[in-house]
Specification:
heterodimer; A: mainly alpha; 14 helices; about 70% helix; about 0% strand
Chain lengths: ~270, ~300
């Protein structure tokens, strides 16, 4: 194919992919005191008077800091929980023989294909019974044990040379010591990958946190709150755009920093 | 023997947190949810600690007889139209970005950004695009396809809201499948491509005779993932239109959610029954998808 044509096509698709972000950024940077409308094209796509005031404004008036903090807490707990639970479960599955291992592994694999259309109903009832509905723990707990993390860590642990473990055992190290002092440092890339994937998914999650925290709006993460801001009576697109950019920024930075890992990790799913 | 016993004990201890969480939050809800589909169980019974009451197939009769559910299931099936569009486009884009030309990494990364966007942010941003005064109408006016008088809000329009929601699903999905296809493309040995060129095959012929047959496993995987995702679409609808206008975007899983958590009496039994119907359809479609591509492969 002609190179110029190729770049033209790539450019058109690029506009389709990033236009909403670019426009949102333009709105967020627009000085609203100048009385401009976000729908005044094409000026609204390229703000004449740039300001950061909207970011300050949305932080103050919508108590954005609170929601941001909720997102950080939920994401932090989920990542810590997922890494811990996955590594703990993956270690014996990768390195030991014990009765029921195949069965347990099979059961974990099964979770990938079972139809899960009703789980959110029962999980909500369970959380209510446990008194965890409307808490961050309630959002986090049902999501931290998953086949993906256990798989990923098991694959990583399988690649660690057996001689290292033998040597450590001869030195009298306990299995927990071997896991934390040898296995985890050696599988840091996999841990990082799992951590990054979990961070992005959790930060962006909407449905489950919305459901669990529907009775506790003060505890909602930004992904849920941002729609409440939109619905509030003082609808202010400039502030909402600023809030949207603030919410997107951490994910975008994580993605740009770990881009290779991201795209490779996805490719690994096919090979 | 002693060592083995200790090894087993250690293994179970390490596995315990994962197994307990999976049991409580995955397997129990799957089984109990299936059971609830055959019972009468609602918010009032739950609050008064009354157990679910077995009613046999009554919920299924109610669900299947409910015009709203039929509309919802119909919409969900109609939503499957996004699958071929998404797969053809992703494969085409993957072919487009497969060649290593200057700056290609930037395009690949940019196409992936919608994938890592929260559905709620997508809702905020796309609402401005679909607004009566938004960019889509502006663009159409600029191309002289509409007039200012004919402009409407795409998400508030009974005929167009459905397709507008689907466009957002498409936007959030094509980068994901592009990466999967890209991996498949890069796994094709270059010699095959070169041999075809030597044999005088055109680019089009090479695509259909070499690339597509070798990509069949990836196409099957992506189509399966995409079919199930399309049938289960809920979040986009919830945040963009909440099922409206006039139920034109109401989907099957939205029915499950609404019956369980909206309205006066949370009807967990009925919602579970509806969920089981959706699960059954998903299973059926996966099987069909699999057979379709499997047969193609044998042909």
């Amino acid at each position: 194919m002609n190179t110029a044509l190729r770049y033209l096509l790539l450019g058109v698709i690029l506009i389709f992919a990033v236009f909403p972000f670019v426009w949102t950024l333009a709105i967020a940077l627009t000085d609203k005191t100048a009385g401009s409308s976000i729908y005044a094209f094409p000026q609204s796509l390229l703000p004449r008077r740039v300001t950061l005031h909207n970011f300050v404004d949305v932080y103050r008036t919508f108590s954005l800091g609170k929601y941001l903090w909720n997102s950080v807490v939920i994401t932090g707990l989920t990542v810590a929980g997922t890494l811990t639970v996955s590594a703990l479960a993956a270690y014996p599955l990768a390195r030991f023989r014990f009765p029921g291992r195949e069965l347990i592994f099979g059961v974990i694999v099964l979770t990938l294909v079972l139809p899960s259309e009703t789980t959110f109903i029962v999980n909500t009832l369970t959380l209510k019974n446990l008194g965890l509905l409307g808490t961050h723990a309630g959002v986090v707990m049902p999501t931290i044990a998953g086949a993906f993390g256990i798989f990923l860590m098991r694959q990583a642990f399988l690649a660690v040379p057996a001689a290292l473990l033998e040597a450590a055992r001869l030195d009298g190290a306990s299995e927990l010591t071997i896991l934390t002092r040898i296995m985890l440092p050696l599988t840091r890339p996999s841990l990082a990958a799992l951590g990054i994937f979990t961070t992005v998914t959790t930060w962006n999650a909407y449905f489950w946190p919305m459901l669990v925290l529907s009775g506790a709006p003060d505890k909602a993460p930004l992904a849920v709150a941002v729609l409440k801001l939109k619905g509030q009576f003082n609808y202010d697109p400039f502030n909402i755009a600023a809030g949207a950019i603030i919410m997107m920024l951490p994910v975008l930075l994580v993605f740009l920093a770990a881009q290779r890992l991201f795209l490779r990790g996805m490719e690994g799913a096919v090979k | 023997m002693q060592v083995h016993w200790r090894q087993s004990l250690m293994s179970y201890t390490f596995l315990a947190p994962a197994l307990i969480l999976l049991a409580v939050f995955t397997f129990y809800p799957l089984l109990y949810g299936a059971y609830l589909g055959f019972t009468e169980y609602n918010g009032a019974r739950f609050a008064n600690h009354l157990p679910p009451q077995w009613v046999g197939l009554r919920n299924f009769e109610t669900v299947l007889g409910d015009p709203l559910f039929r509309t919802a299931l119909g919409n969900s099936v109609k939503y499957l139209l996004v699958v071929p569009a998404l797969q053809v486009a992703s494969l085409a884009v993957a072919v487009l970005v497969a060649k290593n030309i200057p700056g290609i990494a930037l395009f690949r990364a940019a196409y992936y950004v919608p994938v890592i966007t929260s559905v709620s942010l997508a809702a905020v941003m796309w609402e401005w695009v679909f607004n009566r005064e938004g960019t889509l109408n502006w663009l159409l006016r600029a191309l002289h396809l509409t007039t200012p008088e004919a402009a409407f809000g795409w998400l508030n329009n009974e005929q167009w809201a459905f397709w507008a929601v689907m466009l957002v699903t498409f936007w959030r999905g094509f980068g994901y499948y592009m990466v999967l296809y890209l991996a498949g493309l890069q796994a094709i040995p270059e010699e095959l491509e070169e041999a075809a060129i030597l044999d005088g095959a055109s680019a089009w012929q090479r695509f259909w005779r070499v690339t597509v047959p070798l990509m069949r496993p990836t196409i099957l995987l992506c189509s399966l993932l995409s079919t199930i995702a399309a049938l289960r679409v809920l979040e986009e609808v919830l945040v963009l239109t909440n099922g409206g206008p006039l139920n034109s975007t109401y989907t099957a899983l939205m029915y499950v959610y609404a019956k369980a958590f909206q309205g006066f009496d949370f009807d967990y039994g009925l919602a579970s029954a509806a969920g089981l119907v959706v699960a059954l359809v998903a299973l059926l479609l996966s099987a069909l998808n699999f057979r379709f591509f499997h047969r193609e492969e044998q042909a």
